Amino acid sequence: MAINKVILDYLQKNARKFPKSAIAEGLRKAGYPEEDIRDSITANGKSQTATPVMPPQAWTGDMRGKKKTQSYGAKIGDFFIGFCGAAFLCWLYFYVSLFGARGINLIGLPVLTIGSLALLVLAFVYRKYIAIGMLTFLTIPLLLFGACLFAFGNL
């Protein structure tokens, strides 16, 4: 029994794309002997039935290198967390800028700004829909402001 490793690899790569007869015909045209083709097809059929197919691994919680799949409800929940979180950050900016103690504006606002940007970047890396909610909250007032300027002829 002459099993050609090159033919076997070719069969394994293309078994799902083409019927065996088309693969065998292509191998014949490439100049491979009929006996090698027949033996490799037989060996390929045996190896496919003997090798169990492993189901895809479920998400285990490790964020590095694996995509987290979320349900539709979880995506909406993350979006609202980001939307409400951005509203809270805006309220915090307002509170610190108006009612902050003396000198806290010089320290507090830059710290809040850097922290907010870091939070946005981390949200994009790990939980994308939180970041989308944050950006939506920050974009809607700008769009409304532009629409008002356009409507009243100032733009």
General description of the model:
With 155 residues, this protein is an all-alpha fold. It folds into 2 domains: 5-49; 72-151, no CATH class. Helix content is 72%, strand content 0%. It has helices at 5-14, 20-29, 34-50, 72-99, 104-126, 128-151. α1 packs across α3.
Strand percentage, roughly?
under 5%
- Quick one: how many beta strands? 0
Overall residue-averaged pLDDT value? 75
Query: What's the number of helices?
Result: 6
| Total number of domains | 2
Helix residue percentage: over 70%
Going by helix content, strand content and strand pairing, the class is mainly alpha
Instruction: Please outline the major beta sheet.
Output: none
- The string of secondary-structure elements, in order, is HHHHHH
Low-confidence stretches: 47-63
Coarse shape: elongated
Oligomer: single chain
Name the descriptors.
elongated, single chain, mainly alpha, 6 helices, 155 residues
List the helices and strands and how they pair.
Layout: H1 5-14, H2 20-29, H3 34-50, H4 72-99, H5 104-126, H6 128-151
Helix pairs in contact: 1-3, 2-3, 4-5, 4-6, 5-6
Short description:
The chain is mainly α and 155 residues long.
